[in-house]
Amino acid sequence: MNARDDILRRVRSALDGVSPAVEVPTAPRVRPRDHADLVDLFDERVADYRAVVTRCSSDDLAATVAAALDGARAVVPPGLGLDVAGAVVDDPSTGGHSAAELDAIDAVVTRAAVGIAETGTIVLDHRPDQGRRAISLVPDLHVCIVDASQVVADVPDAIALLDPARPLTWISGPSATSDIELDRVEGVHGPRTLHVVLVG
Amino acid sequence: MSGTFVGMPAFPSAAREALGDTQLRRNLAHATRTIRDKRAQVVGEVEEWEELRLAGAGVKEAALRDLATHLETLEESLTRAGATVHWARDAEEACAIVARVAKSHDVDEVVKVKSMATLEIGLNDHLEREGIAAWETDLAELIVQLGDDLPSHILVPAIHRNRAEIREIFRRRMAAVGRPAPDDLSDDPAALAGAAREHMREKFLRAKVAVSGANFAVADTGTLVVVESEGNGRMCLTLPDVLVSVVGIEKVVATWSELDPLLRLLPRSSTGERMNPYTSTWSGVTPGDGPQEVHVVLLDNGRTRALADEVGRQALRCIRCSACLNVCPVYERVGGHAYGSVYPGPIGAILNPLLRGVEDEQTASLPYASSLCGACFEVCPVRIDIPSVLVEQRAAVVDSHRSDRVPKAEAVAMRAAAWTFSDSRRLRLAERASGLAGRVLGRFSRTTLPGGRAAAGRLPGPAAGWTGARDLPAPPEESFREWWDRTDGGRADGEEGRS
Ligand code: SF4
């Protein structure tokens, strides 16, 4: 018998006589809040991870992003929809930048798919306004533009909006480790600085 | 280059040795105290934590009870998404599959995301024998690997090392396997993390093949989930051309939306954060983004054995958060190595015997590596009743020694325990009696346990063998039931929960 059939047979015999029906209680939801409060909470919770948060109006977006980059050379996804001075575009249709090329670039500017207030998380689903996974990973500074309208209350709201067929990256603060005496240190392999620009 | 647990002595002797190591005990006490406090704080923030635990337990239990169906669905969804699915009955088969994939790409190295399943099957040693270097990329795993050491904690495998020791390991060992540590490396955790970043980066940039595990596998969408902190996971899951993920068959959840309670429960229970820095999910191959050749190895290696155990089955709900380790008074004193397995602490004490059986002395000693204080059940995000499974496993050990002429002391004790636990009135009486003993033992205390509880030192008589190497928590003077009755579950006198 091949391994597959053998394992499935073992599973079935282990569960012989066990009813598959189990009542799964619905997971509780956080109390609904006013959307403006949610955006404030998102701001506060993102900052709590020692990420930088700047709020601005859509008119000030270009200037705010430029200030966040502070002269750093950036890579941007093809569908960013914002002019970033001196930035190189990562174009997947021509293969995109190699990891080594990205390693020589200081920063990346992307948009996001969803912001989660309760946990201070941004989620990228790597559509053309966010780009391939590699571009938001290798450079050391990640400037991420989140629109206030993208902020939802909690994890279940985000899960309902996200498409699992796409690769997803959930980001909560800069790369960190607690591996040395459980002391939290920001900055290991991922971007050491996360700058969230919250628009609206 | 990594050590092995094979041939470890049984828990009592390994524990006695560990207890003699004061540095180890100090490192552990500091680390587990820090993490316990952080967890308590972020769990306290969630009003409906208990409901969330019920939902998390429900999702995992439902998946396990119809596991064959979900596995077939998972295989179908993964295949549809462009992944190649392999099945492995045991460690040997799983290792051989990974080695075959690596060899088909002619590589002599792979980068690895921290994964309990690959540790469990001894993948690194296997690959090394086949001439392939497996680089651990998680900071703690790197410390363990460079130190030629063994992991001692699920989440923080190098929890037994302090910063000065880590600096020494980096300075002595990094140069032999890649970029050396800087000459002026200090023992500041930020500097140590920086050295690891520099050291690993060249490996990430050139890696062709990566190996990972998965925290969850979603059957209906074919999605794998990796939860991490440092970004080494993202590097491995994104940059190489080929990705092989070794996934225990118990990692399955039925639907995408069922990830919700689990993604809320895991980070708060594990690192004491509202959310871990990075979670990656992927379903097979995404054209133009990330690895274009994706393999998934579905691993049994004893899981169907555990699944057949009516009481023990719930251990397969485990999401490896390690909260039960961090609250365990036995773990805090002896550390992870004494358990002789990649799964230490309370969960290890039940999981190893369930996966492997209790025929050998080492595994058979594990169900006794507990004082049954119940703290592990209280913190477990998926409500695994570890104390009950321990009691059942002890009975299994006793059964397997039935033919011995002289009954083990434990056998006698367990028969009494089974009699007591089977009736709640008897349990109440027994608790009261042990409360009396607690008052007496408290007077002989030589130390205190986390939370300030008195601990009994060496006990006389038949229990001496047990307490010779352990600080047994003295039974509380007031049992939980008595406390509950007196305070109406803590509402009467405004007492806070212990965690
Ligand atoms: S048994 Fe529960 S508390 Fe322990 S590691 Fe598993 S999920 Fe976490």
Outline the structure in words.
The complex is a heterodimer of chains A (200) and B (499). By secondary structure, chain A is α/β, with parallel strands linked by helices. Chain A has one domain: NagB/RpiA/CoA transferase-like (Rossmann fold). Chain A has 5 helices and 12 strands. In chain A, the strands form 3 sheets. In chain A, strands 1-12-7-4-2-3 form a 6-stranded parallel beta sheet, sandwiched between helices. In chain A, strand 5 (114-116) and strand 6 (121-124) form a beta hairpin. The longest helix of chain A is centred in the first third of the chain and has 14 residues, at 35-48. Chain B is of the alpha/beta class. Chain B is built from 23 helices and 13 strands. In chain B, 54% of the residues are buried. Chain B is globular. Residues 414-481 and 493-499 of chain B have low confidence and may be disordered. The interface between A and B is large, with 74 and 95 residues. Strand 9 of chain A pairs antiparallel with strand 9 (278-282) of chain B, so a sheet runs across the interface. Bound molecules: iron/sulfur cluster.
